[in-house]
Known about the structure:
The chain has eight helices and four strands; from the N terminus they run αααααααββαββ. It is of the alpha+beta class. Helix 8 links the parallel strand 2 and strand 3. Helix 3 packs across helix 6, helix 4 crosses helix 6 and helix 5 packs parallel to helix 6. The longest helix is centred in the last third of the chain and has 21 residues. The mean pLDDT is 91.
Amino acid sequence: xxxxxxxxxxxxxxxxxxxxxxxxxxxxxxxxxxxxxxxxxxxxxxxxxxxxxxxxxxxxxxxxxxxxxxxxxxxxxxxxxxxxxxxxxxxxxxxxxxxxxxxxxxxxxxxxxxxxxxxxxxxxxxxxxxxxxxxxxxxxxxxxxxxxxxxxxxxxxxxxxxxxxxxxxxxxxxxxxxxxxxxxxxxxxxxxxxxxxxxxxxxxxxxxxxxxx
Length: 213
C-alpha cells in the first residue's frame, strides 16, 4: 500500500477525523489531515535531503500521515495504534518499520531509533504555528494555545554542508514569553536533537534571531 492509497483509505480518514474531534473536545491543538499531511511531506523532505531511498521516503510519508490516528482510541498512548496497517499489503519489514516509527514519536515515551522515526519526530515536533490553535477566544487561551499562537513564523532549514537541521522561529513575546515557550517545547526540541543525531546531523533552534539550542 502506498502513501496515496493510505490517504484515500476510508478507515484511516475516519480514524483521523474522529481522533482530531476527540482532541478538540479535550482542548488540544489541531491534529487534522492538514497537520498529518504537513508532517508526511516534511519528513519526506528530510530523508530526501539526507539521500535516503525512495522506499524509505515512502515509508516515512505513510508514518507521517498515520502518526496521530491512535487519538481515535485515546490521547494517552496514542502512538500504539497500528491495527490498520495489519490489513494492508505492505511488506512485513516495511510495516514493522512504520509501526515502530509511529510508536516512538511521542516525547513522553519515545525517541528516534532509526532514520524513519527520526524524520517523523523532527517533522512532527517542528509543526508549530498559530493556525493550529482551535480556541477562538484569546481570553480563554491556556499556555499551549498561547505558545502556538505566539509563533508568527516557523521555518525548517537543512544545511547539508554543515549537517545542520535548523528550526527558525519568530515568537511574539507580547503573547507568550520565551520562558513559557520552553516550558512547553523544551522536551520536544531535545527530542529533535536526538533525532538529528540519528541522521548524522545536529539540531539548531533559533528564536527571534537568537540561537537557543
